[in-house]
Every structure is written in structure tokens, then in C-alpha cells.
Amino acid sequence: MHEIPLQYILIVSTLMFFIGVWGFIVRKNLITILMAIELILNSVNINFLAINRFLYPHHLEGHFFGLFVVAIAAAEASVAIAIIINIYRRFTTINVENVSEMKH
Amino acid sequence: MDLSQFFIMRHEVLLLAVIILILLMEIFVGKANRKAIIPVSIGLFLLSTLAGFLPAESGQLFGDMYRTNGLIVSMKNILNIGVLIVMLLSAEWLRKEENLDKVSEYYLIMLSTLVGMFYMISSGDFLMFYLGLELASIPMAALAAYDKFRNSSAEAGIKFIFSSALSSGVLLYGLSMIYASTGSIYFTEVAAHMGEQPLQVLGFIFFLAGMGFKISLVPFHFWTADVYEGAPISVTSYLSVISKGAAIFIFSIVLFSVFPMLEPLWQELLYVLAILTMTLANLFAVRQNNIKRFLAFSSIAQAGFILLGIMGGPHLGLTTVVYFILVYVFTNLGAFGVAISISDKTGKENINDYNGLYKTNPMLSLTMMLALFSLAGIPPVAGFFGKFFLFTSAASKGYYILVLIAVLNATISLYYYLRVVKAMFIEKSDHPIAPFRSSLSTRMALALCVAGTFAVGFISWIYEYLYDMTYLLFIF
Amino acid sequence: MDFLYTIWIPLIPFLLFLLIGLTGMYFKPIVSGIVGTVGLGVITLLSFITAYQYFFVDGMVDGVYQKIVAGSYTWLAFTDTLHIDMGVMLDPIAVMMLLVVSIVSFMVHIYSLGYMKGEKGFSRFYAFLSLFTFSMLGLVVATNIFQMYIFWELVGVSSFLLIGFYYDKPSAVAASKKAFIVTRFADFGFLVGLLLLSYITGTFDFKTLTSPEGIETIRGAGLTFMGASAVTWAMLLIFMGGAGKSAMFPLHIWLPDAMEGPTPVSALIHAATMVVAGVYLVARLFPVFIMVTPESLNVIAYIGGFTSLFAAVIACTQFDIKRVLAFSTLSQIGYMMLALGVSGYGEHGLGFTASMFHLSTHAMFKALLFLGAGAIIHAVHSNYMYEMGGLRKYLPITHLTFLIACLTIAGVPPLSGFWSKDEILAAAWHHDKLLFFIEFAVAGLTAFYMFRLYFSVFWGKETHYHHTPHESPLTMTIPLMLLAVASIFAGFIPFGEFVSSDGIPHHGEIHMNIAVPSVAIGLLGILVALLMYRRETTVPDRIAKALGGFYRTVYHKFYIDEVYLFVTKKIIFNLISRPVAWFDRHLVDGTMNKVAWVVEFSSYRTRQLQSGQLQHYAVFFVAGVLVLVLTFAYFLF
Amino acid sequence: MSILNLFVIVPVLTVFAILFTKDFKGARVVSAIGMGIQLLLAAYLIFAYLDLRAIGITDEMVFTQDILWFPMLNIHYAIGVDGIAVSMIALTAIVVFAGVFASWEVDNLAREFFISLILLATGVFGFFISLDLFTMFLFYEIAVIPMYLLIGIWGSGPKEYSAMKLTLMLMGGSALLLVGLLGLYFYSAPDGGPLTFNILEIAKVHIPVEMQRLFFPFLFVGFGVLGALFPFHTWSPDGHASAPTAVSMLHAGVLMKLGGYGCFRVAMFLLPEAANEMAWIFIILTTISVVYGAFGAIWQKDLKYINAYSSVSHCGLVLFALLMMNETAMDGAILQMISHGLMTALFFALIGMIYGRTHTRMIDQMGGLMKVIPFLSVVYVIAGLASLGLPGLSGFVAEMTIFVGAFQHPDIFHRAATIIAISSIVITAVYILRVVGILLLGPVKNTDYNLLTDARWYERLSTITLLVAIAGIGMFPFWLSDTIMNSLGPIVSRLLAVV
Prior knowledge:
The complex is a heterotetramer of chains A (104), B (476), C (637) and D (499). Chain A has 104 residues and is mainly alpha-helical. Chain A contains 3 helices and no strands. In chain A, helix 1 runs antiparallel to helix 2 and helix 2 packs antiparallel against helix 3. The N and C termini of chain A lie far apart (59 Å). In chain B, strands 1-2 form a two-stranded antiparallel sheet. In chain B, helix 1 packs antiparallel against helix 5. Chains in contact: A-B, A-C, B-C, B-D, C-D. Chains B and C meet through helix 7, helix 9, helix 10 and helix 12 of B and helix 25 and helix 26 of C.
């Protein structure tokens, strides 16, 4: 059976990472930015899992790492969304450009 | 592995106990007695702090995921002292009506970030490190956004958590590269397999950027000022001292224990980052008017100076950094303490508002002046010793030019510290801050800071003790 | 018997100065005056004793007058060989000067009791006089060139203090300032010169310097600079100091202005003693001059000769009697300098002896002239000749003594001036004819302007006075009479027996071939003056008109003052100091301020980076990572 | 325990005592007592020192004490003095004592004023007794910082600007200094022994020449900034002009001497080869300082500016003489430090007193003060005469020693520079007499001045203390010069050994 080579997986994960970063930088909606962050974290997850699976199959460190990253991403998202809700209350918008009272 | 081995996690265990007790209080204490939570929490934390000073032993747990030794214990103790001061300082603010019903949340969140930092410092692999890091960061966002009814607080929270998430993403990405190239996430094994392969170096740079965010090095620092300004001032003090201190601790530990092979590389990188950080932060700071923002940039600049210390190597450098953080805890919290006290009483947070403060509140002004002089590195206060050792540390590797730039930056920093001194002592004001008497807890905290600021410099065995401890770092 | 007691000669006036200066204000003013005068009397007595002992008892060994160091202690040590000693050294010229200084000073002390009576600051005046006397005596007995320099400075300051005695008078203040700064400028030369000399010889000590071995060391030094040997430069620079103090052209400008001081001061400092310090300095180092750099002596001779002529010409046009006397002093000091310049050594040392001789006689008659002038001013309250006239009736004693003094300076035999001037002319004749003719002319001019002064004041038309002039009190006239006696008889001292360039007595003689013409020209000068000023005539005015521009130039002292003013005000003040101040404020300090400005400005610009936009921060973050990666990649590949 | 400790302990105790006083009267009396004790201690120290030397003790430093402070970095609290340090301590004690009396009338925040003043003095005393570069630097910085408050709070004119400028420039100087000190430290044990900050220890080793070349400019300029080295002197005029009387006195009188002292004790002594090699650069700069400062002073109208520029000139002479590298010139440099310290302190005291009466420092607005305030005026004249080098006062001794020493240098360049420097005595005379003439002499310019009162007892005490010292050194310079000269031996021989 043919396995998808590691390179392909890594290319996908790298693309995901940069798409995530790009999304973080250009999208204006806070929720979308949060999704961009998830993209970044997931690309990391893919990295860990794939590397573990392909390169170091006798240990499970990569897998565990991925597992914890997922959990933490969830925690992060929850706190972030809680704050976004508060932002919406205070600013009546979740456009990131408007959340810039403090500068210079 | 028997149960007694858990005692080498004494700091974390005690802290968790305190957290659980506070949680219980939250459940069982009625509305009328909520004020009592404050002293009890502080008391409990004081106990755990004191217990932290009991003799400690080196060791590791969970298959080397967790490790501890004399130096790490000292670091935790330093953080404990800092948190104790922050708790004392924030008591007055928490006692306010609008904060009373979320008092225990404040403590809970803050102490859980502390637990995160402890695990982070004690981590023996990147997983534990990452867990600790996130445990220290995510609740921090909640703390920053603690003041629900203030726009800036919410803004601070969102800026913090998003920036933090981005930086963790970058850091993790770097870790995945390191994992790919070394096949392990354990510090010892990673260190053993570390070479100068491009992938490893790339991973290291990503890792460095992630840590740079935590320590707020230029150009990863932009969140700092906004978050510091927006967050409640007690939280700001916590952020600027404790969480930065913890990040620097683990950063230096990781540099020395995981990436010694890359030392020539990271020396170069730190060289550049240090110059950038000091210089730009100083330039940012020169014209700030908000005291929190001002202290934010000042703390960024201090981070730049600390990099000089790290460059001095695993013994001299590490000792110096830990020592400096100790000094910094007393010093910066002293400065924040005064700002907190004034902010609590009057709501004023601008440097202009401090005009003529000495006439009305001499003790506060003197404390502030001492703290600022210490930050600027003026003798006889501890900051002088801290800075001097930082410079010594960098010079020990022959970085004289870097030291020169750093000292010149220290001179610039003196300029803006003196601006505050000038406001308090020299400027006249038509509406100076009225004389007031701070609460007992604030005064205790400030007294602690002042005492620390004076004592740490002159008592040389602290430095010696830390130096001896650095030799334990690599023995588990 | 030793000379240890002579250290009291300078020490007493110093103690007097401290005593009067610190406690004078607690007593009646006259107490200070009397204390000072008595002290000076003691010093004069001691000087006479010293002179007697030196010249007739102990001074001569093997037919040569020795340099005797009476006492000396190390005041400040620079190196093993270079150290400033404070001490007393006696040799013929020192002893002679001791006498001159103490006598004139004593006379002036007495005179001032009357002249300064009732002045505010009477005791201050006596304190300063004591200070001056101390300094001058210390200068005279100096054992080494540095001690001389120290006292040299001190006399400068005393002179400054005394010229500016009337400190609320702006002209006096300006004059004192001018005197100090001009002499200070000259002292700069003196100091550099003495440093150079000490660098070459490794010693300050006069005795070593002028001993044959010392001369040999100096000769051995082969350094040259701009065509002249270092020694020549050193000696010329030292002479520059002397020229400043002795008001030689072109450093003479301060002396006429110095007449702003009280008249006794002019008599003491600016006629008899301090201004001859330059001559004394050259005489002190005479062996070095003559043995090592005779060419610099030529310079000295010409400067002296020119000054004497130059000053004599100006003196003919001045109306302020003190200024006439001041220019006359310049002229006479020029004589002395010239005499030193034309002198040889040992057998041929006539000029040296003559110079010292003239120094002593000049001190007597010039002090007399000034004190007489003081008496006149005291009587008529004016300095200007055209406000005087016919005073001989009112001031008989003054008139008589003044006449004696005028005759003396005019060189009429057998008064003392004749003898000394004769020797000078003789020395000049042997050395350089040009100089002789200059001096010859000056002799005539001297007689003319002195009698111009004399006739205008005591004869001529009687001016209308506010109140009838009356003769001065005894305290003033007694010194006049004593000095007149001295002026008459001092010439009979066989000076060459005592003072000579090498310490060996030489016989002096009258040079009839020179004496006769010089007396003749003197008498001619007197005659011309008699014709022009005996009665009120229009001759002087007509002559002045006929000379036109030349007269005005002379009257304005050849505009030298204006040149100086231009140099100081325009060049130093406006062209150096002002730009320096500007440069300092705007460029040096401006650079420092600019640094601060740059920091502020870049701070302002940097702050703009902090836009408040979360996503901008992210851009910086990512860009930071990328830059680090790219840098790394660049270095790697 | 060494007696020297007292020089730090007494001021610190005085500061604590002032904390317990109730008003300005108490504060000033306590300060006066404290500084009086300090003065007596200094006098005792002189005699004790001379006694030690008289019984034949030839150690380079005496009264030494050495406490290990930071063992790991081998930092010590090491103290000790030689003749030079003793003289500087005596100078400091005199100036501070006079300074306390000159600020007798400070009533705005008097306690704070005296505390800052005495803290400043503590720093200076500590600096002079230190043998360890770390403690030396520590005390140096302690001495610099109170200046900011002293000028900023109690100053006049554009005080905040001046205070900031002064502090920043001096701290900038100390930045250079710090780099140099660290350099010394890390090359203090080329053979692998423990590194040290101890001056005497470092003096025993040979630091590589290329490193000396690197660090010498840092150290020399670092100290030179405080010593008003051209072109880093511009803090001085503004700072002095704005500072209150006692602060100007202390600053010009003592603090600027730290610069000169450091230059030879640290920069030149420890880096002799570089000192010899690079001297010419600094000789040019200091020669400029000397002449330039004097010319700068001629044009000024503000008394304090005049004195500040004059200080630039005189302090330039100190550095100039040090660079001549021979015993006599360096002896002269130390003498000049002491002499200038006393003179300029006296000047500033007098300026403060005159300003307190006339409320102006512009000379063209005053005139004829001799008539109305004779005591102050006479003292001013004497100070002026001392400044222009009148024999019998300290300035002459110092300058002549410098000139004689400098002129003994075999190099024509040095002698030429000396001649240029000597020319400053003429310029000095010009500006001193200009001031004396305009300010004190002549008719009284303002009729209001007829009501002025002459010096009060404390003002007399303050000025006479300084005056006695000036005249004392001027008339009997031998023992002082000799003491200094004896202590210079090791320094000069080290400097000359490498030529």
C-alpha cells in the first residue's frame, strides 16, 4: 500500500501555517482571526503527528503533543471568545481595527 | 515512584492547595463576609511562600518531564515573593465595591497562572514547558480583561490573547521542527541531538521569537504597552514582573540546557535583539505620559538589559539574571506599588498628575524615587548592583561595544526616570494629589519593596548562593 | 659676623602689612600711619647697617665683592635641582637697591602722613605701602630667579592695588587694570623665559647661574629656534618681563595711566623703585647676558635708547605734570637700560656701573620731583600746568627743592644727575655712536621739558586760584628737603668702587670730552624753556601749530594707546572671546543639545510604530521572525 | 577597623540625624556639627598620615582595610589612602564644611537639602578612600545623582534643563567609565588568577597593549567629562549657573576633582602604555580647554558663567598637567585640584552671597560693591587674585609647579603646549580684573545697594575657612607638595617605566 510521503504532508502543514498567519494579519473579524489561529495550531499538530508517525514511530511524544495542543487550543478559544463577547458589548463591533483605543 | 516524591513538587502542590482553599471559600463564604477572603488568601499564600523556603532537594518526576533543583526553587521563591507583594498591593483595589464579587476569581486566575509558571520553570521537556506556558498565558488574558466595564481592559485582553496565541503558534511550529530533527521533546535528549542543521536552527529561531514575545523583546513586544495600559494596574504589575520574570527564567534555562550547541548563534541573535530592545524601548519610553505605559516600555528596556546578562554564560550569566530578577521584583513592584496606590485613591495614572507629589505625599514620592533610581541603576540601591553585574556578565564574553551601547541606553533611561522624579519633586502643581494614607497592606508591600531594594544589593551572599546553585542546574 | 638679621628687612614690612591690614580698621587711622612709618624707619636703619657691613666689613673677599646668601630655606621643591628657595642674597647691587628702596619708601611713608591725611582708607594705604615695600625688598634680595618672579608678581599686585587706591574713580580702576594686565602680559614672557632658562640650566639659583660654571652650562646648550639660540630666546623673554615692569616701548602704555594713583605712590612705585625692577633684573642676569648672548644686549640697548627718545619727545607736549614726570621716568629708565645694553664686562663694565648709579640717583631726584609735584597738587588741587603758575611765592620750600631736582635731572654739575648721566653717555660713546647721539639729544630734551614744567608751574602767569595755595605741612616738606640733599650729594659717591659688573672695584673718572657737550646741551634746553615759558608767551602755541600733525601725534602719545585699545577691545574681545563664547554655546553645547533633540525626535517617530492595531503588531512579529530567518539563511548559504 | 570608614559613616549618621530634626534650624545645626566632625577627622587624618610616614612606613597605601564583598566576582570593599587621597579628603572636608555654612539660610525643604548635600559628600569621600574600582564607581555614582535634585529643586534659572543636562552628561561619562572599568577587570589577571577590581592588584599586572589602547580613551574621557574636558564641558556652565550656592561650591570644588583624580589614579596608573601613547590627543584637547575656557570667560556677563568657564580653564590645566607624565607636573596637577577646589568654592560662595543681596548675577547691573559690602568684596578680590595666580595664594603654587614640571618635558611638543597653556595666566588676569573692576570698584551703581548689609557670621565663617586654606597652601606649600610628591612616586615610575 502506498503511503502519502512525509514531504506532502509537511507541505500541506506549512501551507496551513502560512495561511493561518496570513489570515491573522489580513482578516478583520475577530472570530475569523481566531479561526486563523486554529489553522496555525492545527498545522503544528499535523507536523507533530506526521513526524512522529514517519520518523520516530517507536515513541509517542508527537502524538501526545498534538493531543495537548488540541486541548489547549480549545481552552484558548474559549477564553478568547469570552473576551470577544465582552468586546462586542463594549465596542458593539468585533472588527479588529476598531479595537485600537490604545496606541503610541 | 512513591508518594513522597511528590514533595519535590512542594511549590506547585502547596499552591494548588491554596487555590483549592480559595475555591472553597468562594463557595462557602457569604456575601457579607467577602472582604474576609482577601486577608485569608494573602495569609494562605504567605504560608505557602514561607514553606517554599524550606530546604529543597533536586530531583525529577514523570520520566524527566518535571525537574527541580536549588536554582529552580530559588526562582520560584523569587516569584512567590513577587506575587505576595502584588497580592498585598492589590488588596485595596479588590476591596472596592465593584470588584468584591469577583475577588476570589482574581486570586484563582492569578495563582493558576503562577502554577503554570512554576511548571514551566520546572519543565524537563517541551510538552511540560508548553503546558506551563499556556497555563501561564491563557488565564492572564482573563486577568487583563478583568475590568469588564472598561473598554481598554477588554482591548488589553483581546490583544494579549491573540498575540499570545500567534506567538505560541510560531513557537510550536519551531518546536515541531526541533522535534523533527532530534526525535525527542525531552530537554536532555534534544540537547544531545542538537547540531547546527538548518532545520534545527530554523526551529530555534521560531522558538526564540515565541519566547521573545513573552519577554517582550523588540520587535515582538508591541502588545506589551497596550496590554499594560489597558489591564488593571495590579494586573499590569503582575504581568510586568512575575510573568516576565518566569519567562526569562525558563528562557535562560532552555538556552543553557537545550541549546548550548547553538550558543554562538544565539549570542549573535541576542546581541542584535538586546540592542534593538534597549534602544527602541527607550525611544518609546521617552515621551510617554501614562505611568503604566511608561513602566511598560521601561520594563521592555530592562528585558534588553537582561539579555546582556544571559550572554554571560550558564554560571555568571544565569546567576546575574536571576539576581537581577530578584532586584527587579522589588524595584519594579515598588514603582508599581506607588502607581497602584495613587490610582486606587485618585484614579490618576498620568505622570503629569504626579506634579508636586512630594509636597503632599512625601513617603510615596520617596519610594517611587528609590524604585526609579534602582531601575536606572543608581547606587546605593540594588538596581545598581543588578545592572553592574549584567554589564559585567556581558563584558566577560568581551562584548564591550554592546556594554557601551547598553550603558548609554541606561543613561537615556535615566532621562525618563528623572522625568518622573522631576514631576514629583520639582514641578509645581495647582491641583496636586491630595495627601492620603494608603491601606496597611499597601504600606506593608511598599515597605517590603523598599527594604528589598536596599538590602538585596548590599547582602552579597544572595548572589553567591545563586551562583553556587547554578552548578546544580545540570545535575538531576 | 653673618647677615642673618637681613631677613628681617623684607619680613618686617610683611608683618606690618598683616598687622595693619587685619587690625587697621579697629584703630584710628593715624596709628596705622605711624606704625608703618616707624617700621620703615627700622628697615632703613637696618639697610644702612647692612650696607656698611657689606661694603666696608664683610663683603669683600680677595678684592671681589661676593654674593652672600644670608639665609635661605626651601619653599617649594619641584625636582631635586629645581626648587624655589626663599632667602636673602646680598651683593653690591642688592645692597644698593636695599638702600634706595628703603630710603625712598621711608620718605614716602613720612610724606604720606601729611599728604594722605584725612583720606578715606588711610590705614589701607599704609597696609598696601607695607605690602609693596615687602615685595620690593623681597625682589631685591632674591636668591633665585623664581623668588624674584614671585616678588615680581607681588609688586605688580601692590602696584595694582595702589594705582586703584581711589577705587570709586573709574579712571583709576581702568588704569590699575591696564597696568596689571600689561605687566602681566610681560610677565608671561618672563615666566616662559625663566622656564626655558631653567630647562637649559637645571637651576633657578642666581649664584649658580652667574658663576663661571653656570655660564659654561648655558653656553653648552645647543638648542636653537628660529635662528637664535634657545638661550637668546630665554634671555629676551626674560627681558620682556623686565621691559613690561620698566615700561619699555612698546609695553610702556600703562605707566602714564598709572599716575591715577596717589602721588606718593607714583613717587615710590612708578618712579623710584618698582619701575626700575626691569633694569635690576637685567643687571642681575648681566653675566649671562654678556657672556652668552651679547646680541640680546644690543636689543636691550636699542629698546632702551628708543624708549628714552620717544618718551622725552612726548614729555615735551604733556600738560598734566604727573604725566610729564611719568614720561620723564620712561626716558630715564631708557637711559639705564641703554647703559646696561652698551656695557661690557669687568674692565669694560662702565655701562653697568653707570646704569646702577643712574638708577640710584634717579630714584632720589625723581622721588623728589614726584613728591614735589604732590605738594603742588596738594596746594592747587589740579594736575594741569595751565591751571598753575607763579607758585614760587606760595610754596617756597617746594619751589626750591623742585628746582634742585630739575637741575639734577638736567645734568647740571655738580648735582648727582650729572655724574651718572655722564658715565652713561661715556659708555654709549664707546659702544655705539648712534646710541650716543640719541642720548645726547635726549639730554637736551630732558632739560627742556623739565624746565618747561618748572617755569609753567612756578613762574609764568599767575592763575586765579580758588583759595590761596599754601605750603605743605612739615611731614611733607621734610622728605622733600632730605631728598634734595640726597640729590645734590649722591653724585659724589665713588660708585664704581662699590658696584661693578664683576664685583671688582673700578675707578670712575670724568670724561671731559663728553661732559662738556652734554652740560652744554642741557643748559641749552633750559635756556629754550626759559625763553618760552618764563613769561606767558604765544611761542609754544605757534610752534605747536607749526608742527601741526606731528605735534598732535606726539600729544596723543603716537596713538599707541589707541592701537592697544583696538587690539584688546576689537581683536581679543570681539574677535576671539565673543566667537569663542558663541562657539561654545551654539556649536559645542549645541551639539550636545542636538543629541538630545535627535533622541526626542526619533522617539516621536518611533512611537508612531505603535499604531494600536493588533494586526500591525502581528506583521512586525512575523517580519521579525522572517528577518531573523533570512539573516541566518544569508550567513548559512 | 580603619579610621577611613568614619569618612563614610559620619555623613551617613548625619543624614539619619537630620531625618530626626524638626525644622531647618535643627537640620543646619546637625549638618554643621556632622561636617565639623568630618573636618576634624580630616585634620586628624593628615597628622596620623604624616606620623605614619614619619616612622618610616613606605606602603603605597596606608590605613587600608579590605573586606571581601562579592566573593564570586572578587569584589572587595577595599579602602586606603596615600598622600594624594589624604589631601583630597582634606579639601573635601573643608569645602563641605564651608558649603554647609554657605547654605545656612536655605529654608525651602531644608532637611532634604542638607540630606542631599551630605549624601553627595558621602559619595565624594567614599570615592577618595576607595581602592577597589567597584566601590569607587559606586561612590562616584552616589556623588553624581543627588546633584540632580539639588539643582532641580533648589536651583535657579532654567534649573530643570541644567540639572537634566548635567546629570545626563555625567552619567554618559560614567557609561564610558563603566566599560573601561569592566575592561580593566577582565584583563586584571592575564595569568589566570582571580580577576580583581583592586587598583593595587591591577597595577601589578601588565594589560596587553592593544587592550590598553581600547580602554584608555573610555576611562580617560569618562573621568574627563567630570573634569570638564573640552568638548564635554558644556554641562558645567549651565549646571553651575543654575545650582544653589553650596552645590556649585561642592560641584566645582570637589566633584570635578573626582574626574582629575580618576584620570590619573585609574586611567593613567593602570594603563600606562596607552597613556603614554595617547597622551598627545588629550594634551591637545586640554590645551584647548585651558585657553578656550579662559577666552570663554572674558565675554560672559553672568558671574557664575564666568566662574564656570574659568573652572573649565583651570580644570583643563589639571588634566593637562597629568598628561605631562612627570612627578613635578603631576604634583602640580594635584595641587591645582586642591587649589582650584578651594578657590572656586570660595568664588561660588561669594557669588551666592552677593546674589542673595543684589538678586542679580549680571555684572553690568552691579557696580561699586566695595563701598557697600567691603568684607565680601575684599574676599572676592583675594579669591580673584588667587585665581590669577598671585604668589602667596594657592593658585600660584599649583600653576607654577605645573608649568615648571611640564616645561621639563624633553619633547618640544609638550613644551610648546605648555607655553600656550601659560598664556592663560594673562587671559585669566583679563577676565578676573574685568569682573573686579566692574563689579566691585567704581561708583555704586544702584542706590538701593547702599542699604545692603555686609557678611553675616556664618558667611564670614564659610569664606574665612576657605581663605585660610588658600593662603595657608599659598604661603607654606612645601609640606603639601612634598606629601603629594612622595605618593606620586609609584605612579610616575609606572608611567615612565613603559616609555
